[in-house]
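Mods, move this if it's the wrong board.
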Amino acid sequence: MRICFIPIDNRPVCYILPKDITACDSSIEFYIPPREYLGGLNNNTNIEKIYDWMHSIPHTDFTIISLDTIAYGGLIPSRRSNANIHEIISNLNKFKNLLKNKSDKIFAFSSIMRISNNNINTEEKEYWAQYGTKIFDYSCARSKYGENSPECLNSKKQIPSEILKDYLQTRKRNFEINKLYLDWKNEGLFDKLIFSKDDCSPFGINIDEAAVLKSLGADIITGADEIPLTLLARTIEKSPSLCPIFTEEDSKCLISNYEDISVENSALMQAELAGFSIKPYNDADIILLINNFKKQQGELVTNIMTEPFSGPFIPPSKPYIIADVRLANGADNNLINKLFKTPKDTNFIAYAAWNTTANTIGSLLSITKFIRYAKAPNPSAAKKLILTRFIDDWAYQANIRQNLKTTQDITTLMPPLIKQIENFLGYSAVSYSFSYPWNRLFEIEVSINMDVNNEFNRSHSFSNSSIN
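Not the wrong board. Structure tokens:
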């Protein structure tokens, strides 16, 4: 099977993770653009080079596309770009003609522009540093009470008119582009088209836009960065069954940070998109163990505390995976400590605790499909993938990152934590290295050197790397 994959940007979870996932099946030829073509935190994707690259690769069976990359140069540029709608549509029509000449199945997704609830402009327009929370409050009031309500009008007064005008024009432009994609879907261009609600809350202009798109026939899901990975899982024909089990059964109806639906519904949405069915415990192929929260999802970075897992950890008697969502953006140390004390368990498949609930569950289901149902399994690649998630989500995000002020070298801080991971998994790598691809603490890139003579390095060739 050949897969063409155009990611959101060049972050490790967007660029490296899909390569590592597909490497678990040696029968897959995975085509992804050279990393230097793709956008980063402060630069946009080179769209013309992406077009040239797409013309250069062989025929593929599936094409998975982040439409924000093509329209705006990436997910972050979709919020920052000042390009007018006519320029964007002109470029998109070139891309549409390219897709028309492809005979493979096309899975695409586009984001519904998020509304960040803080005054951090790292990924937004400059004015977000001063007016971000005010725009968020205005958005919530407009959605919840109406545009002419006292609550909305009062919030509106807090924002300079020219800034609010610019913000609303950017939103309207992106919304109209999303409606254009729906027209393309109705013409039969896409085999699957998903619109994602990125970093959302129960009320907001983005929620209202999602409702309109849904009324026009759109498929909407809460999440963002994990959607290409969840779509990637759909390329595996096998449709296994899951049984979700919650560590806090009475709280599965609660809503996670940055989302607008319950933990349970988030899991069900991701499972459906990834091609899993839901069955009772005795009938399910895999147990999805979800470490959820009791009252509110915690978050280590913002010092939002929550009651940790209190155990005991009892491994399911069937193959299982662990989605650790008690905290946003990092693992629950109590759960990991108890997990690592359990005897080596052949039923354990994979673990994830990446960022939001949707990020964690969607990526975990993709990992699971490629490890569990590969036509030509690559055990060493699977080991590398599982190691990476524990190192990133637990060792770094839940522990080391909390004590860092700058992007310092963490090589000397990692070994004690990595040793615990290796002891639990029962295997190790030759060496590890770490970098900050966007020069910020939010994400690291974990590079793992497996034995040069092992199966992974022999099979990780052209088809699982960039094509220049």
